[in-house]
Write a structure and sequence with these properties.
By secondary structure, the protein is α+β, with helices and mostly antiparallel strands. The protein contains five helices and 17 strands. Helix 4 packs antiparallel against helix 5. Bound molecules: nickel (II) ion. Nickel (II) ion (NI) binds next to loops.
């Protein structure tokens, strides 16, 4: 399932990010590509250890930590420190699948990539191309969102970024290890949780039917989660 979460960053935060990133030193993204994806990757990335990457990444993590829709959709157990990339002058990333396991050396842990996330930091009208195309069971979907919006998609999917033929496309991207690895189970939990939220509107806090549905939600989560 592909989920768009709007306004993860407000326009003022996006402006602050862009200001910080305008003075950053960008490196060749191929340096961090795997042996197969290096042939198809042509973009720039911030060094993960640079102060600006760490500061902005931590800001993103703080925002996500309090974001109910993100938590409902991803059921995050571990989040890879956010990374930043820039596409320009025909830069692109051909069809690839993200590595299943990502090592976070300084935290001495390995993350299983269940979900991939991109937060767009450039407005769509400021560049041509740069669509993130995600292949799924129902065909391929092109994603190009307003700055501050995020797309979440299964890391199992093949995906690519189309060449940016005008302007710059700056993005923040990272991976999530979910407490519920199985995508079908996670999607059922998300749908159930969102339905409970919608049904709860206008009902008493102790509505017995909502309590029963919530009980079902938590017992399914208990059954499917591995933490
Ligand atoms: Ni990727």
């Amino acid at each position: 399932m592909l989920i768009v979460i709007e306004n993860v960053l407000g326009k003022d935060e996006v402006a602050r990010f862009r200001q910080s990133l305008s003075g950053a030193v960008w490196e060749d993204g191929a340096r961090t590509a795997g042996t197969r994806s290096i042939a198809v990757k042509q973009n720039l990335q911030l060094n993960d250890m640079s102060p600006v990457a760490i500061e902005l990444g931590n800001h993103v993590l703080r925002k996500l930590g309090g974001h109910a829709l993100f938590i409902s959709a991803a059921l995050p157990e571990r989040i890879h420190p956010p990374k930043f990339n820039l596409y320009q002058n025909g830069g692109h990333y051909g069809t690839h699948v993200d590595a299943a396991l990502m090592r976070v050396t300084d935290a001495n842990l390995t993350i299983r990539t269940d979900l991939s996330a991109t937060i767009f930091l450039s407005e769509p009208e400021d560049y041509d191309g740069g669509e993130l195309t995600i292949e799924g069971h129902y065909g391929a979907q092109d994603v190009k969102l307003p700055a501050g919006d995020m797309v979440l998609y299964p890391s199992t999917s093949l995906h690519r970024v189309a060449p940016v033929t005008r302007g710059q496309r700056i993005g923040c991207f990272f991976w999530i290890q979910s407490a519920v690895a199985d995508e079908r189970a996670r999607t059922l939990l998300f749908d159930l949780d969102q339905s409970i939220q919608a049904l709860s509107v206008g009902r008493a806090k102790d509505d017995p039917d909502i309590d029963r549905l919530t009980h079902v939600y938590h017992n399914l989560l208990r059954r499917w989660a591995a933490v």
